[in-house]
Write a sequence for this structure.
């Protein structure tokens, strides 16, 4: 299980009234909680990685095992073809503890043909007695706002990471110490400090056997230097400098921003796929597409009134389904959903996510996949076609239908004034 010293400092503070937003700080009220998870993707005659291809890397914590199974190659849209509806279920600080939520949502994903992105916190592969190996920017060695792990917790987490990748899921990063706010938080870090944080996040994955003493365990079946292509920052802070560092280190996307349900664009050379503003049924504002934000708006604490738990979970589920419907029947922009392996308010948000997966991932033209798979698909498309799809606003379907819309010559990119309006809307 995860170490008893673990403290969670999650999420993104909620949008309220005029859509005001503040990125995540620590959980309000009672800071207790446990972990939770999910999964998502479409598959084509997958082949298991051949055993003969295994080649250990470094101390044997990771290995090259060939092409990832259960991941199909992206295809370019044909002229006039309706885009698929992508849905990305992603998990911040992915790890397995006594609640077994990581393993649970892996099974949910397999049942509903969904693969997902798991943003691993590197310190979850570092035992408490080795905490001094983490040297966080602007903090003393061995400091972390989410704690470290124990050997049993590391073993359980590695088992899930291994299985998740073999299922076709992506292993991204949520970095390490989850520092938020002005006092040394990630939003104050320089590009060089981010490079150090990323290097350490990789190192804890690449040396988990040495650090934990589990030298006879099976390796993770991927080269993390190649697998790691995307991230979400703690509290959605520090995105600009992190992206500058990540671009130099070969990352392909980021999901640390705040945005709308429109087609992604590139920022600093990376696909910018932010969390999105989605409806809160019965309320006059929207909030971010993350369990933490719904919780803050509803109870302001991880242990709110038990009599309201079911209502709150239903409200989150229905808000996500409304967001799905307006993309599915509108501009077909990818729907981005963020979660934590947590049982806040009695686990009602985990139920909401599972019910959302069951509902949307079985629909026609829907692909519940990882960020990496969306990035692969975007890279395979005609840039002019993507530019035209980006002219569609939230919930806006082509008036003349997709066949006509994507057969005509692509329109010019939006004006500088329109682009600046979108940019302002995506930042708070």
């Amino acid at each position: 299980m995860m170490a008893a010293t673990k403290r969670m400092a999650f999420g993104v503070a909620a949008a309220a009234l005029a859509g005001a937003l503040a990125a995540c700080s620590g959980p309000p009220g009672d800071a207790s909680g446990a972990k939770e998870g999910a999964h998502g993707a479409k598959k084509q005659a997958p082949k298991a990685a051949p055993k003969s291809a295994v080649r250990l890397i470094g101390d044997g914590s990771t290995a090259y095992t060939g092409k990832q199974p259960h991941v199909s190659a992206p295809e370019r849209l044909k002229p006039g073809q309706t885009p698929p509806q992508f849905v990305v279920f992603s998990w911040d600080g992915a790890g397995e503890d006594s609640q077994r939520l990581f393993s649970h949502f892996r099974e949910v994903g397999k049942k509903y043909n969904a693969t997902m992105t798991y943003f691993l916190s590197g310190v979850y592969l570092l035992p408490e007695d080795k905490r001094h190996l983490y040297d966080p920017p602007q903090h003393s060695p061995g400091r972390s706002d989410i704690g470290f792990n124990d050997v049993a917790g590391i073993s359980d987490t590695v088992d899930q990471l291994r299985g998740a990748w073999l299922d076709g899921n992506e292993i991204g990063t949520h970095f390490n110490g989850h520092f938020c706010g002005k006092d040394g938080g990630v939003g104050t870090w320089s590009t060089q400090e981010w490079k150090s944080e990323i290097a350490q996040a990789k190192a804890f994955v690449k040396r988990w056997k040495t650090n934990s003493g589990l030298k006879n365990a099976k390796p993770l079946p991927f080269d993390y230097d190649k697998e790691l292509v995307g991230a979400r920052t703690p509290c959605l802070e520090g995105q600009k400098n992190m992206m500058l560092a990540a671009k130099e280190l070969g990352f392909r996307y980021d999901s640390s921003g705040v945005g709308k349900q429109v087609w992604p664009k590139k920022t600093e050379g990376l696909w910018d796929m932010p969390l999105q503003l989605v409806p809160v049924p019965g309320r006059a504002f929207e909030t971010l597409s993350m369990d933490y934000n719904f919780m803050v708006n509803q109870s302001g604490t991880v242990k709110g009134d038990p009599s309201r738990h079911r209502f709150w979970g239903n409200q989150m589920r229905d808000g996500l389904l409304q967001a799905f419907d307006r993309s599915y029947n509108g501009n077909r922009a990818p729907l981005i959903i963020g979660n934590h392996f947590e049982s806040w308010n009695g686990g009602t948000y985990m139920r909401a996510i599972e019910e959302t997966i069951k509902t949307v991932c079985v629909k026609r033209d829907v692909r519940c996949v990882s960020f990496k798979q969306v990035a692969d698909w975007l890279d395979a498309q005609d840039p002019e076609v993507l530019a035209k799809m980006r002219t569609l606003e939230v919930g806006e379907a082509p008036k003349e239908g997709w066949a006509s819309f994507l057969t005509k010559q692509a329109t010019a990119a939006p004006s500088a004034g329109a682009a600046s309006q979108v940019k302002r809307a995506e930042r708070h």
Q: What stands out?
A: The chain has one domain: 13-426. Residues 3-44, 410-428 have pLDDT under 50 and may be disordered. The longest helix spans residues 309-331. The chain is about 35% helix and 15% strand.
